[in-house]
Automatic annotation (TrEMBL):
PANTHER family: CATALASE (PTHR11465)
PROSITE patterns: CATALASE_2, CATALASE_3
Entry GO MF terms: catalase activity; heme binding; metal ion binding
Superkingdom classification of source: Bacteria
InterPro entries the UniProt entry points to: Catalase, Catalase_3, Catalase_AS, Catalase_clade1/3, Catalase_core, Catalase_immune_responsive, Catalase_sf
Full protein name: catalase
Entry's family note: Belongs to the catalase family.
GO CC annotations on file: cytoplasm
EC category: oxidoreductase
List of catalytic residues: H54, N127
Cofactor requirement: heme
Binding annotation for heme: Y337
Length: 499
């Protein structure tokens, strides 16, 4: 006989878990059976709102170990000495699909990391690509609307996707990444991760540098072809989830090497393009990778909902020694992510065990839905006060930012240093992809653009082809031929200086 009694959520033991109290063996049920109410009401509320983006994901816990000394750049305690270990949680995801979508869809992959440090939780929230489709967060809702379901058909719309991309040339670099085989990675263990945005590091002297974070896959890069991804979609829609879970269960722990690129403030001021533009990468020849440490995932969640679905990540969560940058996408994400978590999980989402800092948390926040700690007890809920010893520690003061301008305005995203949308995509096509990769990229683009329909079809295709030609003539020709487009008509739309 088990000593674990079956109880209601309030701890009241009960017996009839399967049968409802009624009038006679075949009579109506009684309203007084509160266990029936509790079970059905809880069942109706078992699904929290799914994430607007990155809805379907997988995750695991592990350890980050410092292997490189970067203390000259940052005073962040998790990087303080060689060999220091920090507990981590990584969550991987597709971006556009719903929770029931397939893991092998062509899509960027979210690469979200939580580091449980003694100075609070640091969230590094990026993708498996070092760049993004847009560089101003104000455009984000519009972009995501094109990736979701059409308001009329309730289906995905290739027309909307390519219409938006063709009208936003800054998207081209990321479009080529996603349309290449990198857009269908072989699960989550065989891809790089990136912080994507530009951040800053601050050392003990208050000196600041700009930084890009890279997570270099130790398992080797492996991608599906478009055909293999489609086949796996029909065989196992949860391939990436299953692959990650089973590899950790059998002791085959995936690892990533964290590296950083560093740019000084002076280098940023004189750089040939805006280094805070997330649609651009920094040259690794000019700004070489510096090793920081190894992240290893070695522990699966005991309960997916509690520890992965309820996990909440936000770029706003930075720790002492790490800071922000003027990256416009990052600036918008600082607000957007925390607001999304409060909507999805409630104002007290950081008290949920998977999100809670395992070290000290002291503040004057009180009340709200699902407050699950002591709510501050009888201590005051205001500051300053004469009773509490919770006070700011001046040693955590962040250095002031030196601004380059006192003009507040809406600036042209295509102004000087902002308007080269083609050089890096061209380099990616010519120098990064091999012959097979180039061919797959063209085939994938042709397949995707073939879905464009409606009276604006030719206009959208020609506009996008202009972008491809400006990046690389071979790319433009390959796509145009695949779509059966008369290239002379495309050339007529291009400025003569671009041909």
């Amino acid at each position: 006989m088990s000593d674990k009694k079956l109880t209601s959520a309030s701890g009241i033991p009960y017996v009839d878990h399967e049968d409802t109290k009624g009038v006679g063996p075949r009579g109506p049920l009684l309203l007084e059976d509160f266990i029936l109410h509790e079970k059905l009401a809880h069942f109706n509320r078992e699904r929290i709102p799914e994430r607007i983006v990155h809805a379907k994901g997988s995750g695991a816990f592990g350890t980050f170990t410092v292997t490189g000394d970067i203390t000259k750049y940052t005073k962040a305690k998790l990087f303080s000495e060689i060999g220091k270990k920090t507990r981590i949680l990584f969550r991987f995801s597709t971006v556009a699909g719903e929770r029931g979508s397939a893991d092998t869809e062509r899509d960027p992959r979210g690469f979200a990391m939580k580091y449980y440090t003694e100075d609070g939780n640091w969230d590094l929230v990026g993708n498996n690509t070092p760049i993004f489709f847009i560089k101003d967060a104000k455009k984000f809702p519009d972009f995501i609307h094109t990736q979701k379901r059409d308001p009329y058909t309730n289906c995905k719309s290739a027309t909307a996707v390519w219409d938006f991309w063709s009208l936003c040339p800054e998207s081209l670099h990321q479009v080529l990444f996603v349309m290449s085989d990198r857009g269908t990675p072989y699960g989550y263990r065989h891809m790089h991760g990136y912080g994507s945005n530009t951040f800053s590091l601050i050392n003990k002297e208050g000196e600041k540098v700009w930084v890009k974070f890279h997570m270099r896959c130790e398992q080797g890069i492996k991608n599906f072809s478009s055909e293999d991804a489609a086949q796996m979609k029909s065989v196992d829609a949860d391939f990436a989830q299953r692959d990650l879970l089973e590899s950790i269960d059998k002791g085959d722990f995936p690892r990533w090497k964290m590296c950083i690129q560093v740019m000084t403030e002076q280098q940023a001021k004189t750089h040939r393009f805006n280094p805070f533009d997330v649609s651009k990468t920094w040259s690794q020849k000019e700004f070489p990778l510096i090793e920081v440490g190894i992240a290893e995932l070695n522990e699966n969640a005991e309960n997916y909902f509690a520890q992965i679905e309820q996990s909440a990540f936000a770029p706003a969560h930075i720790v002492d020694g790490i800071g922000f940058s003027p990256d416009k996408m990052l600036q918008g994400r600082i607000l957007g992510y925390t607001d999304a978590q409060r909507y999805r999980l409630g104002a007290n989402y950081e008290q949920i065990p998977v999100n809670r800092c395992p070290f000290a948390v002291n503040n004057y926040q009180r009340d709200g839905h699902m407050r699950i700690d002591g709510n501050g007890g009888k201590s005051p809920n205001y500051y300053p006060n004469s009773f509490s010893d919770v006070r700011p520690d001046p040693s955590y003061t962040r250095p002031a930012d030196q601004l380059d301008s006192d003009v507040a305005d809406w600036f042209d995203r295509n102004g000087p240093g902002e308007d080269d949308h083609y050089t890096q995509p061209g380099i990616f096509f010519r120098e990064v992809l091999d012959a097979t990769g180039k061919q797959h990229l063209i085939e994938n683009i042709v397949g995707a653009m073939s879905g464009i329909t409606g009276p604006k079809r030719a206009e959208i295709i020609n506009r996008q082809l202009c972008h491809f030609f400006r990046a690389d003539t071979g790319l433009g020709m390959g796509v145009a031929e695949g779509l059966g487009v008369d290239v002379t008509k495309v050339m007529d739309q291009m400025p003569r200086t671009e041909i």
